[in-house]
Amino acid sequence: MLLATFMGLLDASIVTVAVPSIQHGLGASFGEVQFVAAGYTLAYAVGLVTGGRLGDLYGRRRSFLTGVVLFLVTSVLCAAAPSAPLLIGARVLQGLAAAVMLPQVLSIVQASFTGPARASALGLYGATIGLASISGQIVGGALLAWNPLGLGWRSAFLVNVPIGLVALAVAGATVAEGRGARSRLDLGGAGLLGAALVGLLLPAALGWPVWSLPFPPAGLALLAAFGAFERRQANPLVPMRLLAQRRMVRGLLTVLAFYAGNAGLFLLLAYHLQAGLGQSPLHSGLIFAPLGVGFAVASLAGRSRAALVPGAALMGASLTAVLLIVATVPGHAQIGWLLPALAVSGIGEGLVAAPLIGRVLAGVDPADGGAASGVLLTATQVANASGVALIGGLFAGALGAAPGTPGTALSAYDHATVVTTAAVLALAVLTGLLARTLTDR
Do you know which PANTHER family this protein is assigned to (predicted)? Predict the structure, then answer.
């Protein structure tokens, strides 16, 4: 299950490294390659709650294995795509496959483990998130540099095949079946929620084109309509009893602050390292590596809810260090100072990630495990999109010019990085304050 988790999260980022190669190889427009990247994440986010509910209704093991098979098939379709429109279509299908596959992981963990064993499983899950978060740029850059069998960008999709086959074989032999109460899938609720999430997430996924500005208000209106519709359903897509739990609501608010800050940090550092300091995507990914390693190691060690507030404090301390380094250290000399600061940031994030998942899902009825996992992962995706939109817009405004424009001084990037790091620091402080409400018994 962790291999499948790694594979699904890797595919959300590995393609961004291959975008220039895809554009050249397929003769695609800039708008088309934007949809290659956005199609996956958008379809994934839109389908998560429905995918989780499918596991509750029809079997989590069956849904997980079906999702893995579909993910492998669509990965091969992506690699074989002869044109940009077909690649976009295959990426959307791949995102929907991930939405069937990944919510089952947390719901199976909830159903299969209790007590310390569950904390250990969630720690391993958090470590997998940490490794996947920094592997996209490293693996993608390495594959493009190595160019196995002359496959070019297509190898970024085919790398899923051996990983997925191992996950499929081992999970098929070891994962027990489980499901919630039998009922019919709420198709009306799924349609309303999907449309609402498209409205909320599409503008950020495409960099806020002017034509997309009406989408977020429409998304909020559809989200309100979804809530009203669900209250009238006998078998709703999202049982309202989940959102009646104070721990669940407080946990989801913490998830929004935590993952919005993480997404913002990755974006601002990518801008600063690549456009400001002139690092290649591969070198930039290697500079991120201490953060991912720290995240993975701390996820294994920090399994208790008592680690939530100290973890957020470490995040705040490391971000303060990043802000001071960029503000005071000149040019490329910053990199040597940033490495330990990013490692500390990763440790703080790892101490928060696994216990946060456990606290959000604690007390959820096993019958609602898939729906709760889908809601949690959807909140994560909304947070990621919000963080990218907020920090990206703030960075562009502070820079005063488009990133990469000739003549833009390095000091301008330093200034923009300092301003946006301060915003991410505020989100880390908010994460700590919200996390305090989750540490009670």
Answer: ACTINORHODIN TRANSPORTER-RELATED, MAJOR FACILITATOR SUPERFAMILY MULTIDRUG TRANSPORTER MFSC
